[in-house]
Design goal:
single chain; six-stranded antiparallel sheet; about 45% helix; alpha+beta
Length: about 600
């Protein structure tokens, strides 16, 4: 009989070995462990308890008179795998309460363990026939080890499977981040980069709502430039004010609740994050905050995997580099535009300087300069003003009808006396320098530039008159095509400095010419009056003759040398006149008869 029983048990153990070496989950293993224990050990009443939270819950019951039972976890049971780790055949009170021992009439405990963790245990009140013997304990111990090995293998396989899944996910995330980083680093347009960054963070994290903000150094706030809600197409843009852009020694991924103290120290209007449905804030920072990303609730799970934030931090670093590169490229583009604009300005200025060097009068020079500023530099309103008896007279105006208009300057113009150019970038800057009458005349403006024309100071200090320190004139610009730029102010100042010496030379030449050049017309009329006086007082006759001439200044002297005896010749306005004491018979000379007053000559039809 014993031999048949042993053979049956060995066959049962072989089946158990065959069964538990297969791949099952924990629930299947514990269920079959209960069945094999009852079958091989021929147990009477038995119960299987499985660990759930902080207690062991009755899962399977055989022949016990109750369906539910909970055994609270205890220090003894928690330490059981490490301190005991074998079947329990006596001293049950070391692990269970007296009530449980009596209630289940415990005779044997088979623990189900994985390393140092108690998965559960099987209780029994004995065998169907006879009591437990030494062979029963050997079989129970062997069965326990077989079951526990199967549980450990199942646990290791589950951990391996989970690790592989995490590695696969991490590899996928790393690949995605690598590809997205390449895309971001190759994008040099900031507006496109904001959209790409928003989409990348949204895809990698799986966030339902993602927003992207960048720091604006002008307004000193973070402007939300990108927003993505995967459940709808709504957009939301706002501004977040920083307490300080400096940020060192803190995590760059902040939880909206756990890190509330840090968030409140960083942001003034931190309540905005609630409107953005933010659960996490990812700072794009390197010593100073460049921007941020907000992540909302995950789309398909309760919370984010902690390992994800390593990838998020790496992605934030790549985003920082990408934004810096785009900003530098943008700055280079702006600098190139400035250089191109300055080259165009210098080229146009060079043409202007070449042309004004050929001007013979101040009127011609100012007209040419005004037209150049209008056509090449987009000036819409401007005029020149030159001093006239303590006031200034407008000339060569563009964009307003103000020529010949006189105006006075106020104390605000004093800095121009030393050659300084005054300017204002606002629409109301004109009120500082002009009275109401001039403001009405000018009407709308978007700037003001007042550049003095100094014709003496700096050229020859000895010529400056102490009682008249006012500048000779001004070049005044009141409206530009676009908002006034610093290089345009410099341009106007440069133009004024270039034309000032030319105006000085033209003015001086005019004075010298007026002083030294003989005015033929005035001399002729003066001599006519003398002849009329001699005729009236002394009856001395005289005769007036004229002829058209195309002679220039270089043969004038030659013609004067060929003047007839007793005759005086005068040349002006394309004619040559002759006063003679006697009549002249000549085909080339025409007579003006019956001259009784000089008006007879002035009104004569030539």
């Amino acid at each position: 009989m014993d031999r048949v029983k042993r053979l049956y048990r060995y066959e049962g153990l072989l089946k158990a070995v065959e069964f538990f070496t297969q791949r099952f989950n924990t629930e299947q293993i514990t269920e079959f462990a209960f069945e094999f224990s009852n079958e091989i050990l021929t147990l009477n009443a038995s119960a299987l308890f499985i660990k759930s939270n902080d207690a062991y819950v009755l899962k399977y019951n055989r022949l016990y008179p109750f369906d539910e039972c909970i055994i609270p976890d205890s220090t003894e049971l928690r330490h059981f795998p490490a301190h005991f780790g074998n079947i329990v055949v006596d001293n049950f009170d070391a692990f269970f309460s007296k009530q449980i021992i009596e209630q289940f009439n415990i005779k044997l405990v088979i623990p189900l363990m994985v390393d140092n963790y108690m998965v559960g245990f099987i209780l029994t009140n004995g065998k169907v026939v006879d009591d437990f013997k030494k062979d029963d304990y050997i079989i129970a111990d062997a069965l326990m080890r077989l079951i526990n090995n199967s549980l450990e293998n199942c646990n290791y396989f589950a951990e391996l499977k989970e690790s592989n899944a995490k590695l696969d996910q991490k590899n996928f995330d790393l690949f995605a981040i690598n590809q997205n980083t390449k895309v971001m680093l190759s994008e040099v347009t900031l507006e496109k980069l904001y959209t790409i960054a928003t989409e990348v963070f949204s895809e990698v994290s799986g966030s339902r709502v993602t927003s992207f903000g960048i720091y604006d150094a002008v307004t000193e706030v973070i402007k939300i430039k990108g927003y993505r809600d995967v459940t709808n197409y709504q957009k939301y843009y706002t501004e977040i004010e920083l307490v300080d852009t400096r940020y060192r020694g803190e995590p760059i991924v902040l939880h909206i609740e756990r890190d509330a103290n840090i968030i409140q120290k960083l942001f003034v209007n931190y309540e905005v994050f609630q409107q953005l449905n933010a659960k996490y804030i990812v700072l794009i920072v390197k010593e100073e905050i460049l921007g941020l990303v907000t992540l909302g609730q995950p789309l398909n799970k309760e919370d984010y995997d902690p390992s994800l934030f390593e990838l998020i931090e790496s992605l934030a670093g790549s985003t920082y580099i990408a934004i810096n590169n785009a900003m530098m490229f943008d700055e280079l583009a702006i600098q190139k535009q400035k250089i191109d604009r300055k080259f165009k300005v210098l080229s146009s200025l060079n043409k202007l300087v070449r042309n004004i060097n050929h001007c013979r009068t101040i009127e011609e020079l100012t007209h040419l300069t005004a037209k150049t500023l209008q056509l090449y530099f987009g000036v819409k309103k401007m005029f020149f003003a030159f001093q006239q008896e303590g006031q200034y007279k407008i000339t060569s105006s563009i964009g307003l009808e103000a020529d010949e208009q006189l105006f006075l300057i106020n104390d605000q113009w004093e800095d121009t006396f030393s050659g300084e150019t005054l300017y204002g970038f606002s629409e109301g800057a004109i009120k500082k320098y002009f009275n109401e009458e001039m403001q009405k005349l000018v009407n709308e403006t978007n700037c003001v530039v007042i550049s003095p024309i100094l014709t003496s100071k700096g050229l020859d200090d000895s010529m400056v008159m102490e009682d008249n320190p006012l500048p000779f004139g001004f070049l005044i610009v009141l409206e530009a095509k676009d908002s006034l730029k610093e290089e345009e102010v410099l341009l106007i100042d440069t133009i004024t400095k270039n034309i000032s010496p030319i105006i000085y030379q033209i003015d001086q030449n005019s004075k010298i010419k007026q002083y030294y050049t003989l005015n033929e017309r005035e001399k002729f009329l003066e001599d006519v009056e003398n002849k009329l006086h001699a005729l009236k007082e002394y009856q001395v006759p005289f005769f007036v003759y004229y002829k058209r001439t195309n002679s220039g200044p270089f043969n004038h002297e030659h013609q004067q040398q060929q003047a007839l005896v007793g005759c005086q010749n005068y040349q002006f306005n394309g004619y040559e006149f002759m006063l003679s004491d006697h009549e002249i018979n000549s085909k080339e000379w025409h007579s003006i008869a019956n001259v009784e007053q000089k008006e007879d000559i002035l009104n004569f039809s030539f």
